[in-house]
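Internal tracking record. Fields below are filled automatically when a chain is submitted to the structure queue. Please do not edit lines marked as system-generated. If the sequence contains nonstandard residues, flag them in the REMARKS field before resubmitting.
Queue: standard
Priority: normal
Entity type: single polypeptide chain
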Amino acid sequence: MKTFLTLITRARDLFGNLPAYQIPARSGVVEHTFAEFYEDVCNLAAALTSYNLGKVALLGENSYDWVVAYMATVVSGGTIVPIDKELTEQEIENIVRMSDAGALFCSNDYSEVADHIKNKSIVKEIFAINTPTYNGYTTLNQLIEAGAKLRIADKNYGQGENSAQAIASVVFTSGTTGVSKGVMLSRENLLANVISADKFITLGSKTLSILPMHHTYEFTLDILFSIYQGRTVAINNSVKYLAQNMQTFSPTDILIVPLVAEALLSNIWKNAQAQGKADKLRKGLKLSRALKSIGIDIRRKLFKDIHWAFGGQLRGLFIGGALLNKDTARMLHDLGFVVNIGYGITECSPLVTGNITDKVCFFDSCGVPIPGVEIRLAESGEIEVRGSSVMQGYYKNPQATKEAFNGGWFRTGDIGTIKKGMLYITGRVKNLIVLKNGKNIYPEELELIIEQIPAVKEVVVGAREGAIAGEELSLYAEIFPDTEVPEPHKDIEAAIALLNEKLPYYKRITNIVFREKEFAKTTTKKIKRY
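SYSTEM-GENERATED OUTPUT FOLLOWS
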């Protein structure tokens, strides 16, 4: 399978009238089958062909229209440029310019941005998604109707994919540091990742799409993967309605980032505390662990009220995007969820490694490489990746592309170790703190420890020069405290003092900085480092 057309044709033939997408609406739930999805994509592809656009930018909230616009652009032979909707107007304009997009699909929520781009003549066309009318712009539904007429004489009209190596998507990475670069992913890159994941991961029949679709983690492993497997994608329309949508759609699996996993667990404990059931929950966890140690698993029965709150069918929590505290992973597992921690990066389409079984759980590991992907460690400890999922390069940036590879191996910028074939992430190359005595400190390692202090909500560890010239660097912890905890500053200071006693001298925190607001984050909820 080398093209997106092949992917959706296969889905139409195998899963035809099964629900492909479910969307919450005032009138209930709107549903689109795989057969309807195929027709919508092909009709839109036919309409786009007549515009001769090349690259098409895509800006908007998660929606069925968003998926159709992405897929149709690629099926028509074009290249899609998905844009992070939380960027500033200037950043969005920059990406549209840098990508050389000929058109922009944009939802009504971002009409001011669309007008700004149109007025500057940055693109030839603006198309509207998620709305029946839109400032005089042609809507997606109007394009689909026009494309359907074009396909009356020739059902294959508009199907312009002619090479698996052709670029399907240019993804401008948000990143926690540095300048955004356009990652070029071919059709083969993305589909190879899907097929490898299919050999590796066992999922249920329905996912709830929570993370932003512009991010490759969400798009490849929720959208493309579900098309390949015939799974239903229920689209969460707002974080505000997440709990309600869990009940409405009863997903079997969800893709989340560590911050979401931590929030889910925190809410479980808050609800237990509010209902006077915290002690009962602690005793249940103790009993569950004891029974499971001798082969008896009653977790889902024991914690059925918790599972009911998530719709009753949720089993798989697929977690990526950042490091997850192993205690959080272990407790979610003890509550009866299958916790699958993986490692990926946009430049690898994105999945690189994953944990494949609930029988043996490695809560501090990102698992083993998926089929078709190889990993190795450079002398510096940097993780390098090779395989058919690795990007074609950075758009219009040959120097950055050259620097990203080491003899055919992609340099991830992440540091880790490999033990018995299992990958363990230590930190980022850019975040590494090197002391004058040659010692290396990975701030993420200390952050995971400090995050376990109950009064700590978020933390970033950094280093600063000493007051005296030539003096060694000293470590500081910038902390956003949990204000619901009485005297959080006092608790944190005491806990870090105890922690320092157990740490080597060069890893000790010598200064604590408290902040009043949480850290700025990327749309995948990683803290931005400056």
